[in-house]
Amino acid sequence: MQINTLSEFLTQAGTEFRLFDLGRRLQAIEPADFVAIEAHQRPYPWPLQRHAWLAVCYWKTHSADQPYIWFLKLPLDERGLLNNGAVKYFLAALVEQLGQDLTAPLSDEQQQNLAQTPFTFAPSPEKLAAFHARLGQVLHTPPSHFYQGALDYLAAPTQHDWQQLGLQGLAEVAARLQSDAPLSQLLVSQWPHLPEPVQTALCQQCEHQPLSDSVNQLLLDAVSHELERHMPDDERIALLLRATAASPTFIRRQQKIATLLSVAPSQALMLCLVARLWQELADEALLLAYLSQLAERHGDLFNAVFSELVSLPVLRPLILSNLHNPALAPALKDALGALYTASATAST
Question: Given a cut of 50, is residue 1 above it in pLDDT?
């Protein structure tokens, strides 16, 4: 029987598997949804630079403590559909190295050969830590030895050297903030006592994990405090806001974004929204405010950012329906006109 998709391959090999997107931020992909994506029944939901950035984890049944992982960067076509030719290419390379036994041990040479295929990638250390933290929870495996060190530090930050903290431990803290109320309250109470590098590392992990209401409140309060300073730090505002990204939409965050977009939004904020908080732009008022400010204040970014936004299935219909909206701001009309002219010229 010919096998054409990852799902078929993993199922026929007798494994259990989970899939995650690692493009814009860490997100789980339900197996049934991925089957529909592979069948071209729907576009890939979270494209980044016209690719799907996948973490594929599989294991022998009853052996979830020994998972195998691939990181795949698969191209998408202009409609956002998965390029199945790339999948077949990778599967052929995999079979060449492993035969039919997906759980056979790979030699260093075989691992290097697979890594050299054009459809694999190495995640950033921050995303890799977040992924392993989430995977450990999904598979119910114990946290790393860095986790206890992170807990000890949070309990008494002045008694420990923050430079000895492991990134994986902070990732495992972030992954538990929604479900572990005492841990969440500990972080809230100790936040003012944490040095800025620790706050930054925690924010970078929180952006990949859903958070408790109290932690989201803490982060938005920190944004407000930063805005009240004589010279607000634009990068820090974006960092704090981005840290809430994996939590479902909530009204206070929407209001905060609307406020930030109304007062000369920085480049850091504009990039934060397209990279991590694009789901908030599904609100038409926020989307039009964002695009107007992008065109007026950050025109050098407009074409690239617009291309990314329109590639997202959740935003594409809303954007297209507003292209000829007579109420668009003049700067936005001009930017869209220039983009259309550039596209028409390129296609001739």
Answer: no
